[in-house]
Amino acid sequence: MPVVLDPDAAAVYRAVQDPDRPACETLTAPEVRASYAQARFATNPKPPELARVASLSIPAPYGAMPAPFYRPKEPRRPGGLSPALVLFHGGGRVTGAWLKGLG
Fold first, then answer.
1. What is the pTM for the complete model shown?
2. Which of 30, 65, 88, 96 is the most buried (most CB within 10 A)?
3. Amino acid 92: pLDDT
4. pLDDT tens digits, one per residue of 6-48
5. How far apart are CA 15 and CA 41, in angstroms?
6. Dist. CA 12–CA 38, nearest whole Å
7. Alpha-carbon gap, residue 32 to 21, rounded angstroms
8. What is 30-98 written as a DSSP string?
9. Best CA proximity match to 68, nearest among 86, 82, 80
10. Residue 55: which of 66, 40, 39 has the closest Cα?
11. Which value, in Å, is the radius of gyration of the alpha carbons in the chain?
12. Where is pLDDT greater, at 88 or 99?
């Protein structure tokens, strides 16, 4: 069965792969941030009203890592499902320009 990318994620992927976007290394940091912001339109919907916010703690080899948990009041999709996002931040990526290299 083929893997189908979420439509919002697919739109962002196409935007960051646009061959007309200038290479981030040719731009200043503010220009890179502006270019990145233009490409992430689909990832910035109006935030949902939250039913629950919790602080979780995830055990790790060098101490526990904090992990916020947010549960929306209303699911975003029919059938009671909501998308989940798990972010593993690599650190040091202040502009988001690293997305340009996806492929």
1. 0.43
2. 96
3. 56
4. 777 777 777 777 778 788 788 888 888 887 777 666 666 677 7
5. 9
6. 9
7. 10
8. HHHHHHHHHHTGGG-PPPPPEEEEEEEEE--TTS-EEEEEEEESS-SSGGG----------S--SS-GG
9. 86
10. 66
11. 17
12. 88
The residue whose two tokens read 């904090």 is 66
Contact at 8 Å (CB) between 52 and 42? no
d(CA 67, CA 60): 12
Dig out the tokens for 35 from the structure: 């270019």
Euclidean distance between CA atoms 30 and 12, whole angstroms = 20
Q: Is the dihedral of CA 66, 30, 20, 22 positive or negative?
A: negative
Burial class from Cβ neighbours inside 10 Å (0-12, 13-18, 19+) for residue 29 reads exposed
Residue type, 13: Y
Q: In this structure, is the dihedral angle defined by the CA atoms of residues 19, 25, 26 and 31, taken in order, positive or negative? A: positive
